[in-house]
Amino acid sequence: MSKVFFSNSGAEANECAIKAARKYAAAEKGEDYYTVITLKNSFHGRTLTTLAATGQEHYHELFKPLTPGFVSVEAGNFEELVKTAEECKAAAVMMECVQGEGGVVPIGEEYAKKVEAYCKENNIVLIIDEVQTGNGRSGKLYSYMNYGINPDAVSTAKGLAGGLPLGATLLGEKLKDVFAHGDHGSTFGGNPVCCAAAVSVLSRIDDKLLDEVKAKAEYIHKELSGSEGIEDISGMGLMIGIKTAKPAGEVVKTCMENGVLCLTAKDRVRLLPALNIDFDLLKKAVDVIKKAAAN
Ligand SMILES: Cc1ncc(COP(=O)(O)O)c(C=O)c1O
Fold first, then answer.
1. How many domains does the chain have?
2. Whole-prediction pTM value?
């Protein structure tokens, strides 16, 4: 990654990546190359443009018309993506490596690599949304590193400044010079307070912390697999989705009543613990989750 633009949220980080891709594609291929392909079940934010990018109809319903130029395809169906890219004159493909709001579903290395190779061959911009998966959560600095791919743009936010509002759009070689002065900007983006928090967070995401993230994830998987009322566990690193026999909402409620904050993602219980949670606390939390899921 060669350059970074700082904003205030994940949605804004995605808006910047989309603008960069559209400007690049229009200059390289012509103004009718503006469509961004995203995946069904994705989540990219709540502004009108990032809602359009979000491949879940129920988020769109009350807010139409949305920004045009977005189409979503089934995750994992590479042939559909290629056909759509040809038909719609794609400017970019934008996706999460693990669909967070979509049920904590990893898209898989094979599919990610195929999409990357196709984008490279056809000069289509590849944007990876690391808003939820980034900053060490996956066990690597960014989740795409687990798949060995090289995107042209990466958006991130959430944990980046440890709870203060900061979004970042990282632009690689292809896009680094795409914006001219005045093409993009933000009053509060890159403010010193939030950036100081990000410097502190990033200085702590070292190999030791990432190894701990992997060890904690392994512990959660080992403890919960086969436990009463738990049917399946998905995710990557400390981003974990649990399919429970009981409705996920019920399990989340019981967890909260017993001091563990978690949330749902589709029909799963979603865990996004602090990466530096200590093991004693993690063990207590896992016990609460086990009891909440059991009948
Ligand atoms: C993958 C992904 N992208 C984008 C967003 C939007 O981020 P923000 O709420 O900071 O605008 C989210 C928020 O949940 C997200 O999970």
1. 2
2. 0.98
DSSP 64: P
On whether both 133 and 252 belong to a single domain, the answer is no
Residue type, 159: G
Identify the H or E element spanning 144: helix 144-147
Q: How far is CA 227 from CA 73, 221, 249, 286, in A?
A: 35, 10, 18, 11
Instruction: Tell me how far apart the alpha carbons of residues 152 and 92 are, in angstroms, rounded to a whole number.
Output: 10
**Region for residue 139 given its phi and psi (left: phi exceeds 0; alpha: psi -120 to 50; beta: otherwise):** left
Instruction: Return the best residue to mutate from 36, 44, 48, 59 for the ligand 1 pocket (most ligand atoms within 8 A of CB).
Output: 44
CA atoms of 121 and 119, how far apart (whole Å): 6
- Residue 161: both structure tokens together: 């400044």
- Ligand 1 midpoint to CA 101 (Å): 9
pLDDT surpasses 90 at 261: yes
Give per-residue burial for 8-45: e unless 16+ CB within 10 Å, then b.
bbbbbbbbbbbbbbbbbbeeebeeebbbbbbbbbbbbb
Q: Which residues line ligand 1 (CB under 6 A)?
A: 9-11, 14, 43-45, 96, 100-101, 129, 131-132, 157
Helix (H) or strand (E) holding 265: strand 263-265
Residue nearest (by alpha carbon) to ligand 1 atom 7: 10
CATH number for the domain including 88?
Answer: 3.40.640.10
Domain that holds residue 254: 207-293
Distance from the alpha carbon of residue 128 to the mean position of ligand 1, in angstroms:
12
Q: How far is the CA of 10 from the centre of ligand 1 (A)?
A: 5
Residue-wise pLDDT for 133-151, tens only, equals 999 999 999 999 999 999 9
